[in-house]
Design goal:
11 helices; 12-stranded mixed β-sheet
Length: 690
């Protein structure tokens, strides 16, 4: 049975040797790219196009045509290849159409060698685009899947290759257009309409989708030529090819991508680990003023830890099966992959439901607009048929979603117990054997994320270290989804407990003496929540209270930022005072804006903007609505921080696919003494360090 995909939906592949058939009704260019695990292409040798039509396991057409057949052999793909993206483009300078909105809707089908369709996709919604990523075949846990993409580019192939991280995008697009222009005399025109039912050889009509009564596919067969490799001695994934990061759905820098560039200048205190591929001499005093290095070489693939899945069966999940230089990095990238898969499969489900709703509405409108259908039972039969089709489409989409969620849930059950301390929940047994680490981890868990379609599946929310943005923990503008916390006093207390849990986790994952916490509590209202930090002695000083305490702490930290900035910009790190504290600094501010004048607010804005680059971070515990009463002065401060809530709330917007993720804070289980145990270990290690 053919899987008729909608944008974002995926389908498993049980065959290694495939054909990808394309029909567009007008001559178009077909190409394909080989991508790494993040979908990035590392050079022109990773692109199959009319000028260079063969790559290992892949062969594309040598000219523009209305119909194409691409040969794919997944078993012949290099190990570094994780994604095969199929590209379509309109020829330039040929006097033909310049945008897909002016041609018939492209139709793409993935078939076996016997011609039987495995999955199909009608690329709807294109207008001004002249190039499009039609679909991708990607590897996930040693199994291959196909996903409908439909991402168009008005700027043509040059914009498409640029978006995929290819430095020679303009030159490659030009060479493809030149190769196509030389072969335009041999271009195959659109065939006359056929009646044999082979949809893969017909142009899809714009007004009809593949699920609207289209004819069944007709089986055909043909040999698949074995392509030769144009790579020469440079295979994909060569160590001199950096991998730029994708945009992060968290709204910040993408997590866990090897080769990720870092903003400069930035600060790493103490003896934190640096990138061995980018050695840099530390400044006097043990200060390294560069952001923790990122690996520029492609990481080695994970070792095989599970047998490959049988055809048609989902692969057995394995903790740490993503790429990376260490197990922590592999687990980090695996969590990122789970987040991406859940986002995409949910987006595909919602898109399918929207399509089913709009289709049923259209059919019902057609029934009501015809007076003849209102006589007798004809109208009732039409309505029942429309409702039955709607139910069938929704159930089919839900079955696909449930299948993907079941796979992700099984993977989560394997990954969660294997997470290291920095990524683990407070109820993970790994904390009972806690020891102060010797190196700074690459990331930190700030809570959990989930979507309403998969309420039981939780994805860890991991952010890179050191923090690139401060945190705003909203103590009044949020209400729990179950209504358990509606009292303002309870929300303020819970917000402060959340801040303490975050601070304790930061203290726990840094080596001894490399992270320092300051607290401003003007009215002393957070004394109860701050007790674990105060009683264990992990704070740099007792919480600052009153106006004088606020002025003193802010003046000291702003002076620190000024000193480090001057040292970095002047190239004189040895000019810092001999007793200068090289550790990362965190300032927790409770009950803001009570007790803060305009000067103090400006200092906080300065710390939020300039502090992270030099190792000073800000955590605000405040009511957004109360802060808004102080006027637009606080808007830049609010926008510069990442907002979190002390109760589960679906406020984290995802610009990637438009989801509103429900965030759950990483609170300590009631009655647990794990926080006191961990902080006692931190305090003991700090005492020895001094």
């Amino acid at each position: 049975m053919t899987a008729e995909l909608v944008r974002g939906q995926n389908h498993p592949l049980s065959q290694a040797r495939l054909e990808i058939r394309i029909s567009a009704g007008t001559p178009i260019v077909a190409a394909a790219t080989l991508g790494d695990e993040q979908g990035r292409i590392h050079g022109v040798e990773w692109v199959a196009h009319p000028g260079a039509p063969t790559l290992p396991g892949l062969e594309v057409s040598r000219q523009a045509a209305a119909d194409h057949r691409l040969a794919v052999d997944l078993d012949a793909m290099p190990e570094a290849v994780h994604r095969v993206s199929v590209l379509l483009a309109l020829p330039t300078g040929a006097g033909g159409p310049t945008r897909f909105g002016a041609v018939a809707t492209p139709f793409v089908a993935v078939t076996g060698l016997d011609g039987a369709e495995v999955a199909s996709y009608t690329i709807t919604g294109l207008e001004a685009e002249s190039a499009v990523v039609a679909l991708e075949v990607y590897r996930r846990q040693d199994a291959w899947k196909v996903r409908a993409i439909g991402q168009g580019y008005a700027g043509g192939l040059a914009d498409l290759f640029t978006d995929q991280g290819l430095p020679q995008a303009q030159q490659l697009a030009g060479s493809i257009n030149e190769a196509v222009a030389q072969g335009m005399a041999r271009s195959v025109p659109a065939p006359p309409p056929r009646t044999d039912g082979d949809r893969s050889r017909q142009a899809a009509a714009p007004a009809l989708g593949p699920d609207q009564g289209g004819p069944a596919p007709q089986a055909t067969s043909g040999p698949v030529s074995q392509p030769t490799s144009p790579f020469g001695t440079q295979p994909p994934g060569a160590p001199d090819q950096p991998t730029p990061p994708p945009t992060s759905p968290y709204g910040t820098q993408a997590p866990g991508i090897p080769g990720q560039p870092a903003p400069q200048p930035s600060y790493q205190g103490g003896t934190g680990a640096t990138d061995p591929a980018q050695p840099s001499a530390p400044a006097p005093g043990g200060i390294n003023y560069s952001h923790p290095g990122r690996q520029n070489a492609a990481p080695p693939p994970p070792p095989p830890t599970a047998p490959p899945a049988q055809p048609g069966q989902p692969a057995q999940p394995v903790a740490g099966d993503a790429t990376g230089w260490s197990m922590d990095e592999r687990l980090y990238n695996q969590v990122w992959g789970m987040f991406e898969d859940l986002a995409r499969t949910t987006a595909a489900y919602r898109s399918a439901v929207d399509f089913a709703d709009s289709r049923m509405e259209k059919e019902l409108d057609q029934v009501l607009s015809d007076p003849r259908s209102r006589i007798g039972g004809q109208g009732d039969a039409a309505r029942e048929a429309a409702q039955a089709k709607h139910t069938q489409l929704v159930n089919q989409a839900r079955a696909t979603l449930d299948r993907d969620i079941a796979q992700l849930t099984a993977e989560s059950e394997v990954v969660e117990p294997a997470l290291p301390q920095a990524y683990a929940r407070w109820d993970n047994p790994v904390w009972h054997g806690y020891r102060v680490p010797m190196e700074i981890p690459m990331a930190l868990r700030l809570g959990d994320l989930h979507l309403p379609e998969s309420d039981r599946l939780r994805i860890p929310m991991l952010v890179r270290l050191p923090l690139e943005r401060g945190l705003w923990i909203d103590s009044g503008g949020s209400h729990s989804l179950d209504g358990s916390f509606t009292d303002s006093h309870d929300l303020r207390r819970l917000a402060m407990e959340t801040a303490v849990a975050h601070a304790a986790r930061l203290l726990a994952v840094y080596p001894a003496g490399e992270f320092t916490v300051h607290v401003i509590d003007p009215a002393g209202s957070g004394a109860q929540a701050l007790a674990p930090l105060v009683q264990t002695g992990v704070l740099a000083a007792p919480p600052a209270v009153g106006a004088a305490g606020v002025v003193e702490v802010l003046a000291r930290l702003t002076q620190r930022v000024d000193l480090v900035q001057m040292a970095v910009r002047g190239g004189a790190p040895d000019s810092l005072p001999p007793d200068f504290d090289t550790s990362e600094q965190l300032l927790i501010v409770n009950d803001f804006p009570h007790g803060f004048d305009d000067r103090a607010v400006n200092q906080l804005r300065y710390l939020a903007d300039e502090g992270p680059a030099v190792g000073v971070h800000l955590m605000m515990v405040a009511d957004r609505e109360e802060a808004a009463a102080y006027g637009p002065l606080l808007d830049p401060l609010w926008r510069s921080l990442m907002r979190l809530t002390p109760t589960p709330d679906d406020h984290l917007a995802d610009p990637w696919v438009g989801h509103a993720w429900t965030y759950e804070p990483p609170l300590v289980p009631p009655g647990s003494q794990v926080l006191q145990h961990v902080l006692a270990q931190v305090a003991a290690a700090r005492a020895k360090y001094r």
